[in-house]
Amino acid sequence: MEYTCPLCGNKDPKYFGYRNGKIYCRRCISFHGEMASNEVFNKINKNYEANINYSLSEEQEEISLKILEGYKEKKNTLVYAVCGAGKTELVFKVIEYALKNGGHVGFAIPRKDVVIELKERLARTFDKNKVIALYGGHNKELIGDIIVLTTHQLYRYDHYFDLLILDEIDAFPYKDNPTLEALFKRSIKGNYVMMSATPSKRIIEEFNSPFHQILKLFHRYHKNPLPVPKVKIEFLVFKYIFLLKKLKEFIKENKPTLVFAPTIKESESLFSLVRIFLKNGNVVHSKKEDRAEIISDFRTNKYKFLITTSVLERGVTLPNLQVIIFHSDHELYNARALIQISGRVGRVKDYPSGEIIYIASKNTREMEESIGTIKGYNKDL
Question: How open is the CA angle 304-307-308, to the nearest 5 degrees?
Fold first, then answer.
């Protein structure tokens, strides 16, 4: 007899076990805790208008309306938009509509750091509403007008959300994780919006149906071209010499810089070297306990540069930011990751350009594909 896990949808018998005569699923055994009530809370005499003190571009406005119309028609939407296109702003109208109609609204993101930042942003925009954040170690309160949460926390919501927005669908740990994908689908009562700068072919194919729509935005709101990465091929010690030279140049010009390294070990060793020659820098990665404070200090210009792993490949917007990807030919850097990291540069209207430098010992297919894709986006301008 075939058994299906009611929580994650798993049917593979190798993940099932028995305890005290009851079946359990090893795929989602870690997802336990308090579940949210499906009771609709009182929404009378509240203002659900988004407090936006700037104008959307013509293209942003058009896509925003198409997302809203799709939701009214009970269609799910994939927003395929380049980094820095203003994806979050595109869903404000549909959030307003869902709230006005008494709907439960969720905004899911794979990573905790981005959840924290987005919660504050949505609280400023929907300042008459209760916006809460859920992530590991921060999950006492489960009910709010808008619930911003990591994808892991979706297990608490069984067919709960009338509108669920999922950003960064290609990010770890959500990407290619069948358990998290199942929890996402299980938590939806109504319809959903997925957003990504680099959706997989599988996701694009999934949205090619009458019940779905794909909306594309391949340029930023300020209408300037996306900065295109430059490749610097160097060997042995010369890679480090070139890195120090560029960092000194950016610091002298007062340009904040992110230097990406593929692994935690490499980021630490690289910082140990760089700090001998350059001050006013730091290193951040997923194991760094005070990384939120370090990132905050970088934003306020206390640090001139940060050496980082992929923990900062998303959700970072800073004026005049420059990016160096050290060891860009590493196997961990696929084209999608390189595009995401490159998307940190030129996001701010007053600083629409900047440098992205790949430092490598050889050119790779992934590096070439990322550059070709970015150039392709610019052809649509």
Answer: 130
User: Which residue in this structure is represented by tokens 């699923």?
Assistant: 25
Cα(151)–Cα(167) distance, rounded to whole angstroms?
Answer: 10
**Distance from C-alpha of 115 to C-alpha of 109, rounded to nearest angstrom:** 6
Comparing CA positions, the residue from 325, 332, 323, 314 lying closest to residue 263 is 332
- Tokens representing residue 256 in the block: 């904040």
Contact 144, 131 (CB under 8 A): yes
State the pLDDT at residue 317: 83
DSSP string, 222-267: T-PPPPPPEEEE--THHHHHHHHHHHHHHHHTT--EEEE-SSHHHH
| Full-model pTM | 0.84
What CA–CA distances, in Å, run from 67 to 95, 119, 307? 10, 21, 37
Q: Look up residue 34 and give its amino acid.
A: E
Burial status of residue 69 (CB atoms within 10 A of its CB: 0-12, 13-18, 19 or more):
middle
Which residue spans within 261-355 are E strands per DSSP?
Answer: 281-284, 305-308, 322-326
| Nearest alpha-carbon partner for 125 in 137, 117, 114 | 117
Question: What is the rounded CA–CA span in Å between residue 110 and residue 146?
Answer: 17
Q: Are 323 and 257 in contact (CB under 8 A)?
A: yes
DSSP letter at 57 equals P
Select from 170, 224, 218 the least CA-distant residue to 335. 170
User: What are the tokens at 158?
Assistant: 């069984």
d(Cα 170, Cα 337) in Å, to the nearest integer?
9
Say how far apart CA 19 and CA 86 lie, in whole Å.
49
Looking at 24-33, 205-214, 228-237, 263-272, which range is the least confident one? 24-33
What value, to the nearest 5°, has the Cα angle with vertex 298 and ends 249 and 361? 50
Gyration radius of the chain over CA positions: 22
